[in-house]
Amino acid sequence: MGKYSIIGAGISGCTVALELAGQGHEVTLLEAKSVIGGAVLDYACKATDECSRCGVCVAVTQISQAIQHQRITTIVAASLQAVNPHNTHLDFRLTRKNPAIDYHICTFCDLCISACPEGCITKIQRGELIQYAFEYERCRLHQGNACGLCAEQCPQQAISAQSLFTEMQFSSDAVLIATGHAPYNAAQHVRFGYGRLANVMTGLEAEQILSRQSSLGDPAEDVAFIQCVGSRDPRIGRNYCSSVCCAYALRLAHIIKYRHPETPVTIYYIDIQHFDKTFSLFRKSVEASGVRFVRGIPFLIDRSSSGKLKLHIENMDGEETIVEHDRVVLSVGMGPADDASQCASFFGLERDQFGFFTSSTLPNVFVSGTCQEPQSISESMTAARAIALGMLACSGSVNNEQRTAQRPGNALADRSFERKKIPLQQQVLVLGDGIAAKTVVQELQGLHYPVACVESENLLEFDGNIGNFTAKIRTSGNVKSQSFGAVVLAPQESIAKNFDLGPHIASFAEIDQLLDELATRRGPISIGLVLDLERDESKASTETAFQIAKHIQMQPRYQAFLFCRDVRVAAKDLEMRYDEVRQAGVNIIKYEGQLTFVPAENGVTISCCDHILHQTISVYCDRVAVSPWELAAPEKNPLAAFTGVSTDTYHQMQDNNIHLFPIDTNRPGIFVVGACHGQHYLPQIMQEAKAAALEVHALLSQKELEVELSNAVIDPDKCILCLTCLRSCPHKAIWINHEKGAAESLPQVCKKCGICAGECPAKAIELPLYPDRVIEWHKCDE
């Protein structure tokens, strides 16, 4: 059993803590503030009638489980005093402010709140996440007075208040730095008037207002969002995209229009950044709701004579346009945390030119989360799982000894139900032959699991469920059946393989062939590269386009044109690559509407509406390469159909459920990695591969799966074998017992969602957790 410490208890820190504790290790979670959760506590759900996949609900659940986990010790209001690194461990000395609560024994009775004479204890509740915040500056103990009333009134003796501070010392095999970020101080952007002009606010402030009330003010008021405040700006040393700002601006704008369709909403932007596989559909719904998108950032905001906010916008011809809005929301970027320098000195951390942590000079110090680079909630959780695997490997704490995983369960599971143990096969099946599959295989082999890695077309038959899948596989001309405990789907991509847009047009993958065709041609040669042809593309294809464009531009006589709707640079280094491409001479054309391709003599003429000129331009290209990733993929996904994995709107594996992102599927024990479930940036693919390996290890290292027999129960006397339950179950938890002549549910797969019971026309199914008699009793009571 290993011992680990985590500095920073935001979503990254809590995710890593849960993964390590779930592997049977002891974790100490340190937080400088008085509550666990970090920046996530400031965020609110942004759903309308549909989930917007912001990830807040998932993060809140993770944080709650971290607080409750018996192997995780949380220390809030902690201040590091000294760190002494050794070859195999690190020694810590810190102080903790009192009063302090032990959440392992706290029952959240609130008696401490009523006992506090200064009213400095506040209960914070977000769903299942409950904790108490202390305002230490108001506490009598910290004002030099004797007081311990909160501790005296606690019936569980969960509160320590004997002294002002408690000094603590302990050792850890490895430490994770997850200290988070600091939002850009909008007051530094003086021309926007934040803090000086009423009704100019940050996105976080707007989010907090909308979590309490239905609008930012009067629903008739005109609202403007301004993007890239404190990011993508080399003049202030922040020449990087903060990654998350477009996502939260679009989600907030969508909420405002959903609640009050009459509210005028405008978003001023440079480039709207793609944030996940649902982006294209979400952006279309935002536009359809009436939100206006205006490319261009105002350079000044002041007050008009009518009391409105005047936004000054410079046009390309040098003329100035003035528009008025009632409220302005500034989308501020992420920067390094305020205490980054002190933390860097404690742990030998190196920092990049922007102040984010990169790595440590110490082998057992790791970094994750937004202290490393701007990340969304789901990206932070993925990176954290990948780091957890690295921490286990570094400290030699990975083993395959049989044990019972200590993963948090559902509170409903406290009921008394019979339990069953199911043996788990130890071999893992990985389907794919690209970088994602190879990385998964490497990580699993490092964890000492036997792995069968085959190309997806060699999977001939597939059956079974979590822990016991069976597959018939073709290898080297032979066909054999094997059993597997888990399956990782990692084919390279799910894209349009063939498309015909006319002569002299091919895909990015065929760019070398296109260039070879022009090798003997004399005179200047122009090459067009096209993105976003059918859907908004991500930073992955943008990076590929940058690489190709720069390669072309560096060759004599060649001119590269890059056509795109927006430049996707939502990764720390992509903004600088964008600058390099432009400085190399690549002509980047941001277009509106649709592109048209007109065959010309020995080439193609591309026509589009230029976003700057707002008029149609035409560019002759000798050859054109189109990004294939966001062209419509084939409607039938054979591998998904074979394995029973749900697909999304674009027929890619894994549906759009935020609770499944980034690697889980509707089928327990089957994971997806890489471009098969959406176009992915290479660093994300590597993180996903490691996260999938860790999830497989968390499952199979138990050797047997203990499940509670609270799954759906099907009455064989009522079952008419209509197969409605079989078709409606999203998790494939129903099978047909032909000997009994009735359907049955599998306890290791059933999620107790109740869909089968609700859909059964014969009323033959009920859930032991929610039996029919209880539901009927509640109906009568209402």
TrEMBL record:
Entries under SUPFAM superfamilies matching the protein? 4Fe-4S ferredoxins, FAD/NAD(P)-binding domain
UniProt-recorded Gene Ontology molecular function terms: 4 iron, 4 sulfur cluster binding; metal ion binding; oxidoreductase activity
Keywords per UniProt: 4Fe-4S, FAD, Flavoprotein, Iron, Iron-sulfur, Metal-binding, Oxidoreductase
Q: Which Pfam families match?
A: Fer4, NAD_binding_8
Q: Where is the 4Fe-4S ferredoxin-type domain?
A: 97-126, 130-164, 710-739, 741-770
Q: Which Gene3D superfamilies match?
A: 3.30.70.20, NAD(P)-binding Rossmann-like Domain
Its signal peptide is none
* The keyword Cell membrane appears for this protein: no
Instruction: Give the protein's cofactors.
Output: FAD
Q: Which family does it belong to?
A: Belongs to the HdrA family.
Q: Which PANTHER family match?
A: COB--COM HETERODISULFIDE REDUCTASE IRON-SULFUR SUBUNIT A, FERREDOXIN:COB-COM HETERODISULFIDE REDUCTASE SUBUNIT A
State what protein this is by name.
4Fe-4S ferredoxin, iron-sulfur binding
Its source organism is: Vecturithrix granuli
